[in-house]
Amino acid sequence: MKRWKKVAMTATAAALASSMVLGMAACGPDDGGDDNAAHNAISQAVYDEVFGEFYDLYMEARAIVGSTDEDQAERYAKMAVAEAKLLNSATFSPLTSNGGQYAIGRLVPHTYTYVLWGNDMYRYHQALVTQELLAVKDREHVTEMFATAQAGGDTAAEYSAAVRAYLTGQGYHIKDTFTRAYNQDPSNYDVLATSMSVDSEALVNTYDGLMEYDEMSVLQPALADSYTVSEDNLTYTFHIRDGASWYNQSGDRYADVTADDFVAGFQHMLDAAGGLEYLVQGVVAGASEYIAGTADFDQVGVKQVNENGEPDENGEYVQYTLEQETPYFMTMLSYSVFAPMNRAYFLSQGGGFGADYDETAEDYDYGKSASNILYCGPYRITNSTNRSTIVFSSYEGYWNYDNINLKTITWLFNDGQDVTKAYTDVKAGTIDNSGLSESNITSAKSETTTDIHGNSGTYFDLYHYVGQNDAATGMGFYNLNREAFANFNDATVAVSPKADDVVAQNVTRMAMQNVHFRRALTFAFDRVSWNTARSGAELAANNLINSFTPGTYVQLPVAVTVDINGTATSFPAGTYYGEIVQAQLDADNSPIVAWNPEADGGIGSSFGFDGWYHPEEAKAEMALALEELNGQTVVDAEGNPVLVDGEEVTINISASNPVQIDYVNVSTVTVWNNMASAYEKSIEGVLDEINVNLVAVNNESQWYYSGYYGQTGSDKNFDIDTTSLWAPDYGDPSTYLDTVTPTGFMITSFGLW
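Below the sequence we write its predicted structure tokens.
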């Protein structure tokens, strides 16, 4: 399950909605064998045709790496222009973020970090959780307190203490436990060797990084207690905190945390090639060369040094030397690629470095279970029972133990098939937070109770809130070069109606490579109707996103002028990324609305509306597609004519001979089944020339194997895939856009490489 950091789209995640590139060799194609070479050549040709304009503009933007405000503004603006070209190519349909849905619960808002990238948003040790359900008025008051604290420059400690005092003054009891539902078990306990979100969301609670974001989303020292940056912005040196310890699952202390732990962790991350090493290629000096096998690790820019910056095996500092200025480098430190690892323990578990690393060796046990790792964070995993329970227990020897608000965190399994379970459990206190699906909203609006203040009313009126949208972007990927017509792990599952129809297969493939056809398909998709089944009619548009990078992800630090279709166009300081995306879309006469300047009280947003549903534009684009496609000879991916009874055939798309589009559907889960039906109705209701095949599977695991779990383009068994979201790694738009470069993290989702 390597390579996929992206986040699985789940019905359970939606129901729990309170709560997945610089150097590009890491995920590059494997050219071993004639078949792979041919597949890769086809992929490159398709990519050049479909993504070429985006790629050229993006590479120009990506080359701007200076640390000045002017450099950063130009970089952001040119990336926004490139993204607009990507959106207008309609290679995917933006779907939803996590959040933006009704929920009720006990987890107090803004008492854990809301930072949009990395893993720190899954660290809950500082969170406040009440024993009683949190009333609407108190939730709103805490949110106002947060805004005031931010404006006043309060520290996280000052703000947290004020919230605690307010809540206890209102009669709430603050507890030191937090219980949530989950729907997928970790498969790898080595955080440096996995890119699966289900692993990293759990494991982030077991270690600390050098720096971490606090409740105010301010980067603070963690295992580093101080750092310096060289004048040329290429060398970052961190002093390791005294008193931090490694300990085992039983809570026995093992060793001090040292600077070498970060060196060992970095080398192991590169050796393991778990799928996230691309993040440091082109950033940390020598990382790309080490991965390519052209340099030894002592040539990589991660060293244990003394106070003079000299290599020293007893040095108390870890030093990172960068390949080039990387103004967002500090934002990367909250991600797992910079996690520490104890060298001696790793070796004792059968580990090795460089040529000695072999995860398939019989004696290699590191990361195979919660008892085969060490811990240096606030929690150890004391129970990990598949499809049942995961328990995170605090460690009294943890360096920051006195400041942990939650001493125990428990995850309880919920596969999502009972859509009422999470709501029932949160009312009973079995779990502490739950989103509200459409059916549960109905229940919450009819069931009455009394809140902590003695007010009587429905659960909905007394407790509901709307979860904040995060920065994860769900995408409906279009397979541009489909090869699989059943799941790669089980050929009896998700079998396409086209499995034995080579003509239909290739007509769909040729249509998917036509920009007008993709736009027709995309503009015919009523995402509000599709999302109603999951979010309810009232909030169906609330977590819809209309771009890949959220429009408010970055702002211009200074004014900048960039070229938009040959016209020098100026944007003032403070302009949001999404405004520039929209300016380019408008210049291209695209009907796509990726940015609404009136949203969010006039701040503007790319969330909360459907800027892609344009039925009349869909019909017009389909007419253009038919002009270009009909009459062409049907050929396979290599350009060879497809023969029927020894004769060539031509494309003849019409209402009576529609293009067949496969949408894999978990038919046993009501939410997914209703969403699939809405997609079918939406597309076929606008376009007579498309027939949507709902390919039934029995559970989410089978669904994931159709898309999310596939590691190569040839594994992807769909025409449109909605199994995953992308969550950002660091604070720069490249964390999104790099994923759709030729060796980017999401590129196989298009059936390429």
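Confidence is low (pLDDT under 50) at residues 1-6, 11-32.
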